[in-house]
Each structure stands twice: as C-alpha cells, then as structure tokens.
C-alpha cells in the first residue's frame, strides 16, 4: 500500500510540473539551430508569467535593445524582460507578448510545454502566421 501511495504521489507531482513553465530555459534560434541565451520564466505579483534574459550564450551585435521602441529601448539585454503577460490556459500559456531583442519587434505569444522543452510561438494576428522556437530546460 505504501508503494502504491508513493507511486501515486510521484505521478501527481509529475503531472502538475509538466504544464509549468517556470524556470530557466535555453533559447534556440529557429533559423540557425544555435543556442542564443538563457531566459528565466517566473510568475509576477499579478499572477502572470514573464521571462527575462539572464545569460547570453552568443555574442550579440549590441549589448542593449537598440531597436526596441517601448520602455525596453536601450536597456541591457541581461535582465531584459522579453516575455510579458502570459496566463495559463489549460496546458498552454497565452495572452502575452514576446519581444525579439535583435529586431525590437513585439509579437503575441503562446507557449506549450512538452517534457523538457517549450514550444514558444510568436505571431502577428493569427497563430497560423508566425514562428515557433523550441527552448530546452536548463538544469
């Protein structure tokens, strides 16, 4: 009976953590396939998920977001909040935005976790028109 209870508890914790996106993730460029940075996703005081760059893995053209047009303009890339306002909706995280620091463009964002990977989709208008990157969990 103890083994059954332990197995059930382990399965329950595993299922709960499966849909969570909090933690550190290695961003992989969908065009080059190379790792670019480490982004840490946390939940803010409003209960929304945000993501900040905490480490650069490739040397960027600029060390700040020179092409950003909002409050992030000319802010250093380290600490830059690139994901804002995501809310959990079932197994997906939606309703927020993601900013590409290289172009300065901001897109609608949807994230779905599959094991130790995140499928991060940025799009304009409809989700069908956009790009998806797969980020890897950092242990």
Automatic annotation (TrEMBL):
Query: In its keyword annotation, does this UniProt entry include Isomerase?
Result: no
Q: Which Pfam families match?
A: DUF2147
All residue ranges annotated as the DUF2147 domain in the record? 23-137
Q: Which InterPro entries match?
A: DUF2147
The signal peptide annotation in the UniProt record is 1-19
Keyword annotations for this protein, in alphabetical order, are: Signal
Domain of life where this protein originates: Bacteria
The transmembrane segments are: none
Keyword Signal among record annotations? yes
Looking up PANTHER family in the UniProt record yields: BLL5882 PROTEIN, BLR1215 PROTEIN
What is the protein name given in its UniProt record?
A: DUF2147 domain-containing protein
């Amino acid at each position: 009976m103890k083994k059954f209870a332990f197995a059930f508890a382990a399965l329950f914790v595993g299922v709960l953590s499966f849909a969570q996106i909090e933690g550190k993730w290695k961003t992989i460029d969908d065009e080059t396939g190379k790792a670019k940075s480490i982004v840490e996703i946390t939940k803010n005081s409003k209960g929304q998920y945000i993501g900040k760059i905490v480490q650069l893995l490739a040397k960027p053209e600029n060390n700040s977001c020179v092409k950003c047009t909002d409050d992030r303009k000319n802010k250093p890339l380290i600490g830059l909040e690139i994901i804002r306002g995501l809310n959990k909706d079932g197994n997906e995280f939606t309703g927020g935005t993601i900013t590409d620091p290289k172009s300065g463009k901001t897109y609608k964002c949807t994230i779905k976790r599959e094991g130790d990977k995140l499928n991060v989709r940025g799009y304009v208008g409809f989700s069908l028109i956009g790009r998806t990157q797969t980020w890897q969990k950092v242990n």
